[in-house]
């Protein structure tokens, strides 16, 4: 193999094409020119190997996370803008520049991982509230009759603010019987929540609504398990129970049972949209009177 001058015009021209060559973006004729040159130029061949290693390092660094689109575009713009001198300089500068890119990407990925972990913890902690209510009131407390209470009695227990929700639950839970519906509280905590206890498909299933006091479940495909209409659905498996959650303007809603996760989410997908509409249309002032004003952090701490 003949070694051509590093600063030759031909080497400079070929090196301007190397990144496009690695990305298979060159025309056939240009690709042939690059290949012929690489066969006769050891310096440019080494440069191609170095760039290949840099690309592989970047791929390995980013294999589990995708950097924000705006960052990726900004890096590409800078590389293209400075490509002749960026890659035509010394090997030390080339590797230093590549290292900077790697460090930036690793930093971005670390931030994304932290946000992902925090978001998943938030989803789990919110859904754990519904699971705890289901276990304490329906399963351990067995606060429901063997024969369903009459609908009129259930409406009276719910009060004027929530009586209309009974019909929504009955219509959207085919195959389930509403045994009990009431505004429930947790011993030792001022928090209250609306609780529908239903029976069907060989199990007890709870539909629970509690005020969210400004707290929000995280958005993003990595947190949301699906959606029904404009309502995002979240899921978790906690304490042997499967839970599906959603949020309205002022409430968190939960469907909790020991049915499969897929079935629990499917039931929630039918319930969530009409319940959200009904809750959002309700009186904000009356809801504050019925369920009280307890910060979410405080009520979760006391409940757990």
The second-level CATH architecture of the largest domain is: 2-Layer Sandwich
Can you tell me the overall shape? rod-shaped
Mean pLDDT: 81
Beta strands, count: 7
Residue share in helices? 55-70%
* H/E element sequence: HHHHHHHHHEEEEEEEHHH
Write the CATH fold name of the largest domain. Answer: Phosphorylase Kinase, domain 1
Q: Let me know the CATH homologous superfamily of the largest domain.
A: MucB/RseB, C-terminal domain
Which percent band covers the strand fraction? 15-25%
Uncertain spans? 1-6, 293-304
Please describe the biggest sheet, giving its number of strands, its sense, and whether it closes into a barrel: 7 strands, antiparallel
- Global Rg: 30 Å
Structure annotation, total helices: 12
Number of domains: 2
Structural class, by secondary structure, is alpha+beta
N-to-C span: 73 Å
Q: Spatial order of the strands in the main sheet?
A: 1-2-3-7-6-5-4
Please, could you describe this protein's structure?
By secondary structure, this protein is of the alpha+beta class. It folds into two domains: about 100 residues, no CATH class; about 180 residues, Phosphorylase Kinase, domain 1, CATH 3.30.200. Strand 1 and strand 2 form a beta hairpin. The N terminus and C terminus are likely disordered.
Summary, kept brief:
The protein has 304 residues and is α+β, with helices and mostly antiparallel strands. The chain has 12 helices and 7 strands.
